[in-house]
Write a structure and sequence with these properties.
alpha+beta, 5-stranded mixed sheet, 238 residues, 9 strands, 17% strand, disordered N terminus
């Protein structure tokens, strides 16, 4: 779970303590399918999680008078948090039966659900494990294709795949919020192409000073509060 930072004063991602900390707190549940015999590759899972967040944000049910819109607004009025849990077999089938959206990558499957109160998880999601989301890439991922938005991970942080999936989702969300409406529409209509890659140390220093959307973690799990985890490098934001 994390806080975020971007520059506009009215952003729900600001890191400083403020009135929204007094509001009821919500979380965006995400579940990754990890079958024992065929776990997804780490990068595939991270990229699929980031797209799942974008699909949820742009879904008609999440906006206007949509059935999830009030929950999404309440979530965004407070600190924006995401938690990734894992499921397989019957657990996954029960998760799929709940209202939400399943997004598929090359092999990864991630289901994202409407925001819920921190203490109000549906029982079929609450019983799922957060731990055990350690995933690997069989081979180093190729360089991102030219023109594709890249979510750059901090090379100095060691995060579980579940933690990194949430951070990639944060980065995608910051990019979404920062984009003008025409660029949002173009990205959505293209199917939200994106890549998640770990930056080289020198490149990371350049990125964090570039003015691009930057995720700072709240430090609830795994890493120190205020750690910079992701830079969202969308071509339209350069």
């Amino acid at each position: 779970m994390s806080d975020f930072h971007r520059s506009p004063a009215d952003s729900p991602f600001r890191h400083a303590s403020e009135e929204r900390d007094l509001a009821p707190q919500f979380v965006l549940p995400m579940v990754v399918r990890i079958e024992k015999a065929a776990p997804p590759a780490r990068t595939d899972a991270l990229e699929t999680a980031a797209r799942a967040v974008l699909v949820m944000l742009s879904d008609a049910r999440s906006t206007g008078d949509g059935e999830w819109a009030e929950a999404v607004r309440d979530w965004q009025d407070a600190r924006i948090r995401k938690v990734v849990r894992r499921a397989r077999g019957a657990e996954w089938r029960r998760a799929e039966a709940l209202p939400g959206i399943t997004v598929t990558g090359k092999a990864a499957e991630v289901r994202v659900f409407p925001p819920v109160p921190l203490d109000g998880w549906p029982k079929d999601l609450a019983r799922l494990q957060v731990s055990g989301t350690d995933l690997d890439d069989p081979e180093a991922p190729d360089a991102a294709e030219p023109g594709v938005p890249v979510l750059w991970l901090n090379p100095e942080l060691d995060m579980s795949a579940g933690k990194a999936m949430a951070q990639a989702g944060h980065g995608a969300q910051l990019a979404w919020w920062a984009l003008p409406e025409p660029e949002r529409t173009a990205w959505r209509e293209a199917g939200f192409p994106l890549a998640v890659r770990t930056a080289a140390p020198g490149r990371w220093r350049e990125l964090t000073g570039s003015g691009l959307p930057l995720v700072r973690d709240a430090g609830f799990t795994e890493i120190a509060p205020g750690s910079c985890t992701v830079v969202a490098d969308h071509p339209a934001l350069r």
